[in-house]
Every structure is written in structure tokens, then in C-alpha cells.
Batch of 3 targets.
Target 1
Amino acid sequence: MTSSSKLPFPAAVLKWPALASVAVLGLSGCSVANSDAAALSSNTVRVVLGQEPPTLEACESNLTSTGVVVRSNVTEPLIERNPKTGELEPKLATEWKATSDTEWTLKLREGVKFQDGTPFNAEAAAFTIDRAVNSKLGCNVEGYVFGDADLKVKAVDASTLTVTTPEPDPILPLRLSFLEVVPTSTSTTAKVREPIGTGPYKIEQWDSGQKITLSTWDGYWGDKPAYAKAEYQWRSESSVRAAMVTSGEADVAMGLSPDDNIGDLGVDYPNNETVALRLDANAAPLNDIRVRQAVNYAIDKEGIVNSLYQGKHKVAAQLVPEGVVGHNSALTGWPFDLDKAKSLVAEAKADGVDTSKQISLVVRSAQFPKITELGQVLQEQLGQAGLNVKLKMLETSQHLTYQVRPFPKDEGAVALMTQHGNQAGDAAFTVDQYMLSTGAQSYFGTPEFDAMIKKADAASGDERKKDFEEIFAYQNDKVVQFAHISHQTGIIGKAKSVNYTPNSSSGDELRVAEMTPAS
């Protein structure tokens, strides 16, 4: 029987809004007193983030904390996806077409230079693909976008590039939109902290732990941005980020919560992020599907959405939201049923599963608003189902060791809180990395499931959509690697002095060139 009652939330979580108000007043006042905001020119747009980027390496730009600064600001892709229409548009490539079942030919923009003065050409484009996809650097974009497939690239002439795939790939141009182009002088033996790109802004200075400053450069091939500089700071508390906007210390604040007291300076936008637990099926007790099912039943998703996020988020039944090719609208979120969760755990225990073994609930600090409180809620709810859960709050660099292969050894069972954004608009970018047996962010899989995924990857049109819909249903029924929680709605704080309309990609790539001073 499905329970309709709500599990009690930890007292600390229920009191959080009141405590946050006190924190905002105290921290904001202190920050204003030490601010040099008055000295900043109106030609500078000031952005406050939830965390400092771990790197600005171009081949890691699909990581939200990196891409929000570097993508389409410092570096640029060959092809760009319009986040409002979903259509692919020219960027450093002006046109592209399939010239065989496995080959694509791209024509490149001429007259473009990198910020070091060297020319952009087919050699640089080929180098970028080789470095990010075919090398041993372990770039995040390789696992996220291309998986194990290597690409053959050839600079036919200065403005013509061919890319050949091992198998037919109907969405290769979309995959290429994730590669930020760098010059051939970029290291091939190590990742770089600060890339050189072709974008409208170059990295002027990175004061570690304090701020990053970007500035325009005169050699940019496109239109000159309205703001001469962009300055990024970071504060882990979303309420503090909101207070920086309301007090005039910042112009744009990312990743706000509905109760951050931002008022009419808060702007909602259709975020593409989904929050879920990724469950490790290789260690007890999560290696038993009944326990993974119990995790799903034990989580009061509606209670979380309503209590922590004021109903602005939507209960999730899969890793992709509406609008992504392959989203299965027939799926509904697992019902909250504590009795069922307890029964499944007891059944597994009776069959010899050691349900007392510890599950590490791994959560990244400041990844999104209320994440600490959410971790506390999940720990308590899973504990009430009879599971032994330890909450581990980690910084970004530590969390990444759990997020991407190779995963830590001898850790035991892990439930990793993940915030997955599919800004590409196609389910392949979710499924290939999170569900294939060899996926960069997948704990496990089955040969049957792998075959289903490979079939979907090669399909196009209505068949592609149908195949991915079946994959999400199969995951929930037969695999249960995930306990989905919610599809998020994004909120940014925006000063009245700035014109900017956020879109579904704003949380992943905040294009400063699209911002203008309000008249």
C-alpha cells in the first residue's frame, strides 16, 4: 500500500529558512563593508557563482562549474546549439554535411585568430578533436560525449575538415558542439588550467580563491561585447549570493533558491538539470535490486520538492526532462511508500543480503541550493527504511573521483548525488555516459541493456525517440541504477542595471556577450 503521509524532515532542515535569513544579514553586511564595488567601472559585469571552477581547461568545459565561465566566452565550438530552438548553428564552422555513412565534412570560418595571435584553421580544429577525444588525457568531454569511440580527423586544406566515425553517427555535429577549440600550442600531455581560445573574452587574471577576471580583446572575429570585463566571485551559500545582488555587490547571481529573498530581482528559467542518486550495484547491500527499489520507495520526492524548493521543482521519473529527444512522458516518479521500502529491505536480508553494511551517500558541497539539507533528508529517509547510510559532504575535486571513472576502490556501496544537465537535447548524451556498462559515469550495466543503447544511438527520427523512451522505462524496471528525485527550475539573481534573459543552458554556459547594460 502506498503511504500518503510525509516523513518528518530533520529539524535543522525545517528551521533552515529562518537561519538563512540571519546568515544573509550578517554575511552580506560584512561583505558590503569590505567591497570595492564602487571602484568598479560600469563596463564590468560582476557574476557570483556557487563555487570556484576547479579548472578552465577547455576539454572539461561540459562540467558546469567550468563551462559557466569558459564556454562561448573564452573558447568557442565549431558548431553551436541554440538553447531556445534546439537547432544547430554555425560558429567556427560555417557549414557541415555527411559525405558518406561515416564521414562528415566541415567548412571552417576564415580570418579567425586565437587570443595568442595564431590563426584558427583546420589544423587547429583537427588538433582539438584529437586532443580531447583520441588522447590519453582523460578529458571529461570524451566520456560524456564520445564514449570509447575514437575519431579520424583530417585537415583537407586550411578551411576544410573531415571527421570519420567508426560507425554511422547521425548526431556527430551535435557531439562536436561540445568541443571548445584550442590552438595547436596547447599541451597534449597535461590539462591546462587557463586555455587560449577564439572567444570574445580572454582570461586576464585568476586570483585563486578570490576571483577570475575576463577582458575583451581587439582581435575577436565577431561583434564586440557590451561589457569590457567580466568578474567572477563565488560564495557557497545561495542566500549570500542573492544578498550580493540586492546590495549592489554583484550584477548576476547563479543557482539561487526560491526562499533566498531575492524578490523581483530573481528570474526563473527552464533549467535542464535533473537531481538523482546513482546507486552502485557492485557492493552490498545495493547489489540487490530489491534494495535499490527500496531506496526509490523510501524517498519522499514530493515532500522534498515542496519543503525545500517551494514546489518550483518537478518530481522526476527519469534522468532527462521534457524537451529532450527520448524523454518518456508515460513514466511517473516512484511513489513514496515507506512500508514497501522496509518490506523489500527485510526480504533481501532474509535471503542473505547484508543490509547492515554502510552505504556512503556522497554529496558535493554547494553544487546547487539546499544540497546539504537535501543530503540530510535523504540520509534520514533511507535510514527509516532500515539502511545504514553515512553522509559524506565533499568538495568538487573530491566528488569528481566518485563521479567519473576510474571510481575509488574498496569504498563499499555508494549512492552518489548527481545533478545531470542534458543541454544537448538528445538522450544519447545521458544514456551513453550513465547507463552503458563502460559509460564514464556508469557503475554497472548488462549486455542486453548495452545492445538496446547501441541500437538507439544509431537510430534517427521517430525510431530514435522510441528507442530511448524504451531505455528509460527499462532502466526503471530492470536495472534501477538511479533513484530520481527532481527536475530543477533555475533561478538567477539579476540587477536592474543588466539586460539578460536566461535560457535552459545558462547554468552550463553563461554567455556574457549576451548581456548588455540596461538603458
Note: The two ends are 59 Å apart (CA to CA).
Target 2
Amino acid sequence: MTFTRRRFLKASAAGFGAAVLSFGLTGCSLNDDDDETTKQIPVSFDHGVASGDPLADSLIIWTRITPLENVTSVNVVWQASTDANFTTISHDGETQISDATDFTLKVDLQGLDANTTYYYRFISNGKTSPTGAGKTLPTDNIEQVKFAVVSCANYPAGYFHVYGEIAKQTDLDAVLHLGDYIYEYGNTGYATEDAAELGRLLPDDNSDEIISLADYRKRYAHYRKDDNLQAAHSHCAFITVWDDHEITNDTWRSGAENHNDGEGEFSERKMHALQAYFEWMPIRNVADKERIYRRFEFGNLVSLHMLDTRVLARDEQVNYADFDLTSSQGQTDFVAAISSPTRALLGNEQLTWLTDGLTTATTQWQVLGQQVLMTKMHLPFEILQLLMNIQVTQASGADPSALLAQANTLFSELAQIKGRILAGDPTVTSEQRARVETTAPYNLDAWDGYAYEREVILGTAIAAQKNLVVLAGDTHNSWAGQLVTDASNPVSAKAAAGVEFATSSVSSPGLENYLALNTQSSEAVAQIEQVIALLINDLAYNNLVERGYLTVTFTQQQALAQWHYVSSVKTADYTLLNERQNALSVQAGSPTLQMA
């Protein structure tokens, strides 16, 4: 068989979200051979454009063609330029895409200049896409790198104003999306109670929980019609990882909390989800689609290590219900379980890759882009037991009001005891001290449920004398924490190893919903935030109410984190909550959080 250029490009574009390589100018024409597919058919670009996975000399660009007739393939041209008017084209080419990739196309632009913004567009059957922009990575000595950090966008839960605000940022080097880009639930699932009123219902042909490849593809297609999401993607290159909801809630290596009897084999569902992810996201292809951990070097300033804490190696989450937390033996068994060296979150392969990278890096900042909180979020056992009762009550459909009121009282009572201890009050009894100092993690889906690998990472950062910043999403609330080693850490016990900055959500509700907080009372909100910061030893900042995103700016001297919040995701009109914006920083060589 003789391969024409068109047939070669068609073959290279087929498969599991495959990308076409583009090395420069080709002088392409849509009519360079006699394929019947050159017939003009009406198409549209309903899902915008995107770029991602920037390197110093390459960039992924993406689009999706919507054929307006029943066809199996369409032709597409791409163009890239260093000016927005495309006066001079640096790269162009053409290929044929088909329903094998859901009519999505990724092009890997090669041979680009470092630290340069490239504009790109696509043309198909007389239609031209919107123009997108993406920036390649810098090399050598640089003064600043700035990221926007975002996660947890639930379409039915509210408007995507946060993406619109990110699109207004003029000095970003990349957008880091830390997962839960989509949610798997249907119109009656999690956080959908306002969807009809907001006009955010999922379409009829995708209104149930998604399981099949067609389901996942349709869900991405619906999300990507959102104007604010399209604006963010066209504005800046995204660097992404998945969390659980790209597959289903609380995913681990071989299963998930929200994969139930009658929903088929989990492994099949997982591969459907990953295929759709690689088709619809501007991520560079890898041979094994479960191995998306990768590294991005921003000159001499930042090494960004993007991790997978979900699919590749995660062991099943420990369950509180398996332990008697009211007894000393039960508490001992629980701590031993979550600290076991055999429990994997990253797995040996990824952990070795990360620790080797941290040890050998020569950049000023080592940044982990990943999904779940690494800070030790330990609460007193009394509170944990009550929170578990609240969860059981809510799951049963019963009214948890009495328990919630009890929780508010208990939070305040224990915070008062903790305050007296910190103030050196000699009248604090041993029983009172035990109430606040006998603690355990509240979220076993986070690093707290996989403590051994966390200690390896923190010990490595200390031994290698690296400036470590961890970025997280997942919880729907904002946090900043001090990353401190355990007393048993063989490298350095009870030592500060780095800091963590966690972003709020785009639209998913957070602890304010779970704890039924009176969000109309700024005083009540401030009080519970202060109480939680007091009770959790390593926590420096939290926002339990607002939706938003995070920016982190790195210089040779410091890393500056700034949280940005919108007034509401439940109304079409909104404002920025400037009074709720907060900033924290950490200085190079001194891994201690401080107010900026």
C-alpha cells in the first residue's frame, strides 16, 4: 500500500486521542489528493480550542469539529503564528479526523521558540475556529513564573465564573487543572438541586450517571460548550491531571466508591473514561494512558512535577467504620493502618521517579501539582466520631440538625481548651488535654490515609535541601498548610519540609454545605474558620465558603499564593470578593508560611 501524505496523517491521527506532529510549514491544501472526503460538508466549532502541555520547543493544540451531517470523517487544517493576526505562519498542516476520536484533534507543534506565545486556529470546510494562545516554557535564567490553579467544576452545581476570571489574567505562564474537570453524576446526583433553576441541567441524552465511552464523550462535549471554560482554554495553555470524578467518586486502582453492581467491570469503565479524557483534553499522549505523571521545567526557577494520585497505584481507602475509635486499641490499629509502608498512593514506580527528580533538580522551586491535600488535617477523635454520625444520618435521609448543632458546640468547646493550652494555662487538666491532642485525619481519601509515602517525599525534600511547594485541589475549599514530618521520620523528625497551597472549587460546594454553615453571617463563618485553624496544628489558612481559584507566583526569592473568590456561582451576575482575598508567601531557604 502506498501512503500519500493525507493517508499518513490520517493514520497518525487515529486511535486513543492521538496527536499529529507538526514540524513547520507544509504549504498544505485541502485538495491535494482525490479522497472522496474532500467533499465540503457543513461543520461548526462548538467546543472552542485549547492548548496544553507546553515545553520549551513544543505545544499541544486542540479542537473538536462538529459535523452537521452524518459523516464518519472530516478534513482539518491548522495554523500557528507568533502574531494574533497570523501575518506570518510558523506551522501549518492538514489531516483527516473521524468518529474514532469523537472528531477531536490534537496537534503537537514542534520546533517552537522558548518563552514565546503562539497563536493558533483551525479551518475545516470553510469554517475557521476561534483563535487560541499558548506560551512555551522558558529556558535559562528567568525572573518569574505564575500559575493559575483550579479544580472541581461541577456543571449542574453553578456557573463557571471562575474560568471566566482566569481568562482575564494577563500574566499567566500556565493554568494548572488539578482534576474533577467533569463530574460523573446525572441530573439527580451530587450538588444538582439548583440545576433546573440555573439552566444548568445536563442534556437529555446525557442526564444519567456516565459509564460508557459515549457517555463520557457527551459529558465533555457538554462542559466544553460553556463560554467561560472556552475562554480560559483559549487564553492560556493548560497542564492537567485527573482526579476521581473524571472516572467516578473516590476512584482507586481497582475500584471506586461510586462504581456499583450493575455498572459493569470497573476496568472497562475506567478505560472508557481515560480514552475520553485523552481525546478531549490538551494533554500530550503517552504509550500507557494510566501513566500521566510528568515534569515541566521553567528555566532555572521551577520544576513542576505533575502527579497521579488516583489511577496508577492507589490502594483502596481505609474505612473508619472498620475500627473502634472509642477504644485505645482501635485508635492504635487505625493509626497503624494508615501509616503502613505497604499502602500506596503514588506506587513505587512513580514515587521513585519523583524522589529522583527532587534530588537531582537544579531549579529554585520544586512544585508538586497533584490532587489531594498533603497537609496533616488531624482533628480530635471526638469531632471525628460526631462527623461520622452526621454522615451516616445524612446518608439515611434523616434530619442531622441536632447533630450539626452539637458539632458547632463541640468545635467551640475544644477550641477554647486548645487556646488555653497554647496560652500555657496551668489549670488545663490531663483529660482536657487528651480531648484535643488525641487526633486523627478527617479525610482518608487524602495523603492522610497514605502517610508513609508522604514521609518519604518530605524526607527527600529535607535531605536534598529543596524548596518544596505542594499544590492541591479536591476538597472544594481553600487551605494553606505547613508540611511537617512525623516524629518517626528517619531523615528529620517534626521538621518543616515545605508548604502546601490548595485551591477552592470552580462550582462544587464545600464544607459550608456539609456543616450547614450560615454563610450569610460573616461573623459565624470567620468564627468556624478560626476554630478549625486552631484545632488543626499544621493549618495556616482556610476558606470554607467561597468558590474561586488560586494564583501562585514564583521568583528566586519567594513563592506568593493569592486566593481569588467570586461572590456567587448561583447567579449569572457576580462580583469579585476583594475583601476575602488572602495572600501567603514562603521565602526560598525558609519553609515557613507567612502573611504576604
Note: The CA atoms of residues 79 and 92 lie 4 Å apart.
Target 3
Amino acid sequence: MHASRTTSAIGSLTILSMSLAAIWNPAHAQTGDSGASPDAAAKIEKGIETVVVTAQKRSQSIKEVPVAITVVNAAQLERAGVKDIGDLAKTAASLEFGDQQTGGAGGSASIRGIGTAVFTLSAESSVGVVVDGVPLGATASGLMLDMARVEVLRGPQGTLFGKNASAGVLNMATQAPIIGDSGGNVQLEFKGDHGAAVRATGNVPLNDISALRISGIAERNKGVYHNVLTGEDSVTNNGGARIRYLLKPNRDVAVNLIADASNTRSENAVFFAPSVAYATNTAGNHQPAAEFAACGVTVSKTNNQVCSDGEELTRAQVRGFSGQVDWTLASGDTLTSITAYRTRKQGPESVNIGMSTSYDKVSNHDPYKNARQVSQELRIASPGKQTLDYVAGLFYADSTNDKNANVLIEPNPALPSPPVPRSIATNNLQYANLTTKAVFGQATYRLTDSTNVIAGLRYTRDSVSSRFTQSSVVSFQGFALPATVKSASGSASESNVSGKLGLQHTLTKDANLYATVSRGYKGPQIDNDTPVNQASASGTFAGYIVKPELPTSVEIGSKMSFLNRRLDVDVAAFHTKIKDFQEQNCTLTAVGALSCIPLNVPSVTSKGVEADIRARPLPELQLGLSVAMILDTAYPGGFTFDNTNVGGQRLLYSPRNKATLNGDYSWTLPGDYELKLGGDIVYKSRVRLCNSLDAECAYGGHSTASLRVALRSPDDKWGIEVYDRNLGDKRVPNAIIYPLPGKGAGSGFAYSLGENSFRRVGVTLDYRF
């Protein structure tokens, strides 16, 4: 049944592409008979620009790469208003993001319905985030600054990109310096009452063999949440800079040095706003609706009001440095070395989770949460266009993550103490170290002029260790019990061989087919939470091993061009089965603290069909369409969360259907000014955002649309754009939490919101020099 639906979907997309070609062919045929000038005919012939990607560790046209890819270039990123990594979900149908505040900038991503929403320090994402050849891991920053392009590689990419790419990769490239060119640009953005931003770049030629590129951003976002207790809006300030140095002493050697830094500080910015509050909770000891009303919060599914008497402060600093050397040997092979060091430091942070000023308040104070990573990649690549093309290399990475977290729970002060505590204070110290060593290679052998065989292997050796110490003090009226100290630790080593096999066949210069089988791998984790939570007294315990995640994926695709490259159609059908999928079960304890336990789901399947269409039917009109239909990403039958059978339910952040459409039309005005009108629309079917069978844990099918109009000067020196994003003001959440923290089971639900959850009208001004 599923196979027939997949075949039908592929057929429908093929018919669609052929129909578009048929629609435009008459216009194309008439150009010779219409009396149009040669210049006009040339304009009509203007096609889609060639897209160059590095999905196979070498520069290639996207049409040559046997991988399902959505590419978003710098101009498209600008037009779509992509300012942080989560905004990329608007550009690729198979890409989704959860809550970045809890899941991390890269860890919250999912591709084809597969991601990793796990808080364990020893966990890694199923979707790798790679910037300028460096895998970021836990050191990812959400800011998108001076990007050249983003490649969304779908399906397991472990052969070339490593263990944290079992679902796909976000392969990003920043703008490189240009030797001999002097210039730059400044852009100002005004969002009315919701903030402002300034972005700037400059390219400085130092001499005839080197250049420097400097980019920076300062941004202020306001008003995602409103604290009715203090009368203050949430405010997030972002700042970042990147310096790139390029040295080309001769035609065979290139040296790239890159340093980047970013700071983020949020105030009055809690994670969730109550969206559903019931009259009473299950136990009957809270009246959530009345308690929020007493604090002035009007609970609804469009609510962004919160009631907090806590400090509400979060902050993070990211720093990174990388050096890349590319050396073309006499044989034509290119030797590449990429060395990188990165850090991410968070804290001190304070968050009030209790959601109101009533009893059973829960507040977090985290002195620090730090990540450090060192990586080294050394590889060699053949020149390309040979009978045998290959990439082979070595990779090493060592990362350390540590966290200090304090949780304070304040039960009802009106009840007698004892037996009811006045407070429960818990300190959690966590540490994890992950080391990876790998050797990899992939080769393409040209059987005939039109048929290639692809084969790749990666051997990975992982070592992971983690420890967790929890100290709790229960205080009553006038006295406190001795501290309960529980600790757990564990370690694991794992060797894995993953790889890829495939065929690629060129039908014509404008059409090729490919079929691949890929085996991916994501390393083990250490679960120290379970033994600590199960223990009722002080002691030292052994951590549990969360087994590696092993996906096997079959993909069949085609990449076609029509009408002299005015229409590109890329279609892919896929079937991915994941053994021991890494998931977590998050619940609230009896007193309202969040407890998240990592675990393995025995088997998960993701299958479906995708299409990316790029079109330029007229010289003035550009269109882009990305479509994904994911037929299955369900928990296996009988699988349970909290004694509830969730078998057959879709994974989190996995809509069945999603489509993104964007378009821009330009006019030449008198005086050679250019006016451009553009817009985009994203449709998404129902998506689950928390692990419960309750209907409130899902957000229904919806569409969000944006419009923009821009004017550019005749010399392209300056421009102005007015935009209106999320026209319908759809309050789409990034995540949903249940029950309401501090309110007990059966109390209700809360939404995590972001900038995209609101309508935003703004204007940008830019000047190029």
C-alpha cells in the first residue's frame, strides 16, 4: 500500500514537471515568430543559475551530485528573512526545528522526520551542522551571518560527514574574501516596537595574494513574551562577528583562517506561555485557570503572557577558530587540512519554571553549561571528471561538555511543615567526554560515459564517558535533613563500519537518475539519570548505556532540467529504517521538576517522497517549490511512554506533509530603478510537539505566508525593502510542554514561542560600497 502511494506520488510529480514544461514551451516556440528583438529573446532564454555545492567534499554542480539536496543561496536567505538557523525550516520542506532554547541550535533539527531531542550531555544530534567544513556539535550558534549558501543534505551522510549525520547535514558556507576587490555593505533593519538590527560586511584586499573579510551583527528582538507581573517584555540581544583571511601565494595553495564570536543575552524570556489551563488538576490541589487569572494572565492558544517573579536571564557565548589549507599536488589531487577549536559557554542563567506566583514553584539557576571541541580533518580528493574520482581522509574530534544546575522547588507554604517541606534544593553536576577517530573514503567509477558506480566506507571508533552527581537538601520549618548525595557514571567504546553504495545514470545532459543504499551511525550515550532517579538513598551507581543509532536508507532520485535550464526538477523517494533510534522520555516529577530519560526505540521507519523545483518561466520571475510527503515516522506497536502505548504515533516534529513556495517578480522602472515583489508560503500538516496522546500535544495543519516589496537604485548601491512576515499572525509554537510545571498532572499545556510565532512588519535599508 505504501509502495503504491510512493509510486503514485513520484508519478504525480513527474507529470507536474512535464506539465510545466508544456505550459512554457509554446511561449518558447513563439519567440522566433513574435518579432521580438534579439535582446528580448535573449532575456527569455535566461535560465536558472548553476548551483555549486560541496556535498561530496568537492565543488560540483548540484545536478551532478547523487544526493537529495535543497540549496539556499545568499540572495534567497536574504529574501526569506533567514536570520537564525531555525528560520531555515521555511526554505526546505524536509527540515524541521524544535525548541532551540532547550534542544540547542543544531540539536533541535530533524530531517525527514528524524532528529534528536535529547538533553543528555553525552548525546549528539542526528542532523549534523557543518560550517566551512567544521562540524559544530554542541558548540553551534544559531546566528546566520554573512552566509554564501546552505545545503540541506537529506538522508544518512555519515560516510563523508561522520557519526552525527545519521538523518542528514546542514552544510553551510560563509562568504569568502575576494582578492583584489574592495567593498562591503551596511544594512539596517527596523521592526517597530519589536526591535532593530544592524549588519555590516567589508572586503579588504591586503595585497595581490591575500584579502580579509569582516562581518558583524548587532540585533535586538523584543516582545515574544510579556510578563504581566512586572509589566516587561522579553528582550533578546544578539551580537556576532566573523573574520576571514584568505592567502593564495600561488595557484596551487590556498589558506583560509576563520575566527568567529557571538553573544546572546535574553531577559524576561521564559521558555513557555500557558496555552491551556484546566479548572483543576488531577490531584485537586491546584486550580490552574484561577491561579493564572489571579496573576493577570489570560490563558489561550494565542497567549504570550507569563507570570514570573524570577530573574529570567539566559546568556551564551560562542567562540571558534579554524584553519584550512588546500594544496593542489602535481598529480592534480587536492590535499585539504581543516583544524578547528570551538567553545560554547552558557550561564549563569536563571529561569522560573513554576509559571505563576502560587505554591509549588520551580526555579532553575545554572551557574554554567560549557562545551569545548577540538577537531582535525585531513583528506585528499582527485581532480574530478576522471574515470575514477575519489575522496579519502582521516578525522579526529574530542569534545567535553559540563554543566552545573540548581533546581529549587517551593511547595505550598500554607501546609504544615513537617510533613510538607518548605523547600527542596537540588544541585546537579554533569560531565561528558566524547572522542571520535575515523577513516573514510568514497569513490565514483565511470563504467561508461553515462553510468557511474559509487562506493564509500567509514570506520569510526568512539569513546564516551560521563558522570553525574546529584545533591539534594530537603528543608522543613526550622530544620533540614542531611543532604542526599547520589552519583552515577559510565563509559562506552564502540567501533562501527558504515558506508554507501550506488548507481548514477545520465539519460541526457539535462537528466540523470541515481539509486543509493546508505548505512549511517550515531554513537552511544550514557544514561546516568535513570540509576540516580531510581535510588532512594545516597550512593554511587553504574550508568546505563544507550545503544548507537543505526539507520539504513534506500534512495531513488532524478534530477532533470527543462527549457534551457529555466525549469529544474529534483525528485527523490526514500525508505529509511533506524535500529535503536535514540529518544528521550520527559516527565514532571510529583513536585513539578522536569526529568528526561534517554532511551532506545527498537525500530523507527521514515519513508516518503520529496521534490525541489526551481523555475524561471520569465526573466523577471523566479519561483522555488520544496515538497515533502513523509508517509511514516511512527513508534513501533506496543512502545510505551509513561505506561501509555504510543505505538503508531508519529515522532515529534514530523509533519506528514509540508510544502514551501517562494517567488519574486521584478520590474524595471523609469530611470532604471528596479522594483521587486516577493513572497513565500509554508504549509505544514498536523505535527506532534510533545509525547502524549492528548490532542493538545499536537498543532493542527496550517499555512503561514509572508510578503515583501523592494526598490533598488540604478547603480545597485542602495535599496529599501518593506516586509510583512506571518501575515495571519499564526501563533505556531516551537514546542509544547505538559503538564503545566508546578501545577501537577492534568493541569494543562504551554507553548514555546519564537519570533516566527508572531506577525512582524519591518523595513530594511542597505547601502553597498
Note: DSSP finds seven helices and 45 strands in the chain.
